[in-house]
Design goal:
There is one protein chain. This protein is mainly alpha-helical and about 130 residues long. It has helices spanning about 5-25, 35-55, 65-75, 90-95, 105-129. Helix content is about 65%, strand content about 0%. α1 runs antiparallel to α5, α2 (about 35-55) runs parallel beside α3 and α2 runs parallel beside α5 (about 105-129).
Length: about 130
């Protein structure tokens, strides 16, 4: 991998890691902010997949739709099929951020989103080794 590609991947991974850290820290507050946790989990997954695409010298689409990113990643690595159930996190990218379709996820739902984000993190990092 070229140096500038490695640097770009590194930056995507830093941003993704920061989203995971933010989600984790939000579980520690007195009143757990589940919508923010779910949002950060979606963002982390999105950025891990974009880091993978950048490692393949693909400029990722400016999209929050994980199904699009997943399809692109599967074009290089069919094993992304193993994490295809991640697509449900897409709804957390925009819908939770505005009161139009008001919804507050449960703590259990937030924990599941966090576990999924960790799974994707480990999956992508293993591929990038």
């Amino acid at each position: 991998m070229e140096k500038n590609i490695e640097e770009a991947v590194r930056k995507w991974l830093i941003k993704a890691d920061n989203n995971i850290k933010a989600a984790s820290q939000l579980f520690e507050v007195k009143e757990i902010i589940t919508d923010a946790i779910c949002f950060h989990c979606q963002q982390a997954v999105e950025k891990y997949m974009k880091a993978y695409l950048v490692s393949k010298e693909i400029a990722p689409d400016k999209t929050h739709k994980l199904e699009i990113l997943l399809t692109q990643c599967m074009g290089f690595e069919p094993s992304f099929e193993e994490i295809q159930n991640v697509k449900y996190l897409t709804e957390y990218a925009v819908e939770l951020r505005y009161p139009d379709d008001f919804y507050v996820p449960s703590v259990e739902e937030a924990r599941e989103a966090y576990e999924m984000a960790e799974k994707v993190k480990n999956f992508v990092l293993n591929l990038l080794k």
